[in-house]
Every structure is written in structure tokens, then in C-alpha cells.
Amino acid sequence: MSAANDLALWYDESAGTDWLRALPIGNGRLGVMVFGNVDTERLQLNEDTVWAGGPYDQSNPRGAAAGTAS
């Protein structure tokens, strides 16, 4: 059985303002880079429709045909 502490992440030093040392979390559609210091925390958000220019339909109308053998 896992203890709650098994799911915690601990670091020896803060990421500060260095985005490359940030902790990336997310699910592929909504993402966050977490960084900062003990007294301040910064969350940089990203959502996939930001890059697409707005809400969009990800379905491929020709997708079903691609899976069939000709």
C-alpha cells in the first residue's frame, strides 16, 4: 500500500525564474509549467486551442477510411 508521501515531489532548490527548470504538468491538452521560489510561485498555462486560434473540432472526417485495407 502506498503512503501519501510516496506521491510527493521534493526538490533541493527552487527553479527561480528559469523556465527551463520548471516542472511541467498536464495532460497534453492543458499544460502548466510550475516554477518560482518559496515565497512566490509562478504558473504558466497553455491550452491547445490557444495555438489553433480558437475552439476547433479535432476529429478527422477521413480517419475511419484510413483504418480499412483497400
What are the key terms here?
70 residues, 26% strand, 3 strands, 3-stranded antiparallel beta sheet, alpha+beta, 2 helices
Written account of the structure:
- By secondary structure, this protein is of the alpha+beta class.
- It has a domain at 15-52.
- The protein is built from 2 helices and 3 strands, in the order E-E-E-H-H.
- A 3-stranded antiparallel beta sheet has the order 1-2-3.
- Strand 2 (30-36) and strand 3 form a beta hairpin.
- The N and C termini lie far apart (51 Å).
- The mean pLDDT is 79.
Poorly predicted sequence stretches spanning 5 or more consecutive residues? none
Q: Count of DSSP E strands?
A: 3
Order of strands side by side in the largest beta sheet? 1-2-3
| Main beta sheet strand tally, sense and closure | 3 strands, antiparallel
Task: Give the mean pLDDT.
Answer: 79
First-residue to last-residue Cα separation: 51 Å
Structural class: alpha+beta
SSE ordering: EEEHH
Q: Give the strand content.
A: 25-35%
